[in-house]
Specification:
The chain has helices at 61-65, 78-84, 114-117, 143-161, 174-184, 217-220, 229-240, 250-261, 263-266, 289-293, 342-348, 372-385; strands at 7-8, 12-22, 32-42, 50-54, 88-92, 141-142, 166-171, 189-195, 224-228, 276-280, 282-283, 304-309, 354-359, 394-400, 406-411. It is of the alpha/beta class. It is globular, with a radius of gyration of 21 Å.
Amino acid sequence: MAEPIDWTDIVYFVNNLQLDHHSTLHANPGTPVQLAVREYRPREFKNQPVVVMLHGASVPGFPAFDFGRGTIWSRYSWARALADQDIHVFIVEQQGSGKSTHPQPMDDTKNFTVADQEKVYVSGPFWSPYTGEHPYGRYLNDTDSDVAELGTVLNWIAEYRGIYHIHLIGYSAGAFTVGRFTLTYPYRVNSLFLLAPIFPPYGLTGPIPYPDPRLDPAKFGVPMTIQTCGETAGLWKLDLDKGARRESDIEDALWKEIMKQDPLAASWGWPGIPGVIRIRTVLRFGWNLATVTNDDALGVDVPVAIVYGESDSQVFTSPESRPLPQWGGPPLNELPGPPFDPTWLYRAIKGRNKVMFQLPRTGHFMPWENSAATLHDYSAQWIKTRSIEQHGNGAFSFIRTAGGHEMMIRLDL
């Protein structure tokens, strides 16, 4: 059901919704839960395109796609920018993130690793970490449960708007869910727009039981991990050191916005260190070289746009212990996690209705960087025309000319 409309604009309303869903998680199977959805609704329905935006692993959907709404930072609201282009927007937060239901295992600090316990403040002078068995000792979500939640939202939109072909935006790890949804239900998807997609060419094709030697207990033996403000800043700094650009004060404003989404996690942390992010652990599968290469809808019935920054230190990950081979080289064994490379996703899509853009001086945190306006523009172009910069096919980057201007070039992929 909807909350009272909390803000209006000349063109659209903003509604905060809680949609009913029956959980498919191992932690609470069949339990009624609530999925938080924010809608930018046109005042009049006139066949506007409909887009659903899905967040990544750490930052919940509302601060990811609607940061700064009603503040001096409102120009960074990606959802508002799309609504300004007469697009009907829905932001979704998955179970265990943001304003959606957090399953009970996420509330119990005994389900933290010892390293994560040390990140949160525990009162008492003689505290020592809990080292016993975790009450819930396995990962929380998987790709199937995430896809089921997305399906609930799209089914609700279909009843509400009578529209079954919907554009999907996936940011970072959100690409797993919108990608896998598209492979399974291509007739429900109008197009895909993937921002900084995490794509593991040799990730898992299907689920595997837990425990399993391929699943590290430190990563998959707990329902969540914890990320502090300092750790978040450290990840962003990796990209800033490689040339990404942002406004100086935006990091603090973003962290405060993230903390508003989860009051319990905001109450954890050492004195003077404001809260943490609870990051649900997810077993991701079904979105790799094998599944994409064997698909006949991507790039044909479902056009795909990929956008990432040249300074992104997360989308390109090739550990020394598991380096990514050359394209067409000997394959690796399937394992969860890296190596990651979005250019492999572009290559793997068989259809020609695909574009990829690498943006200069931009990192993984693009929604809050100086390139945010370009991101807003590109995604609106894509949703309305299935092209970006008048290109519906091809991979592109930018170079700086001797005169200091940016010149777009086509990449040979």
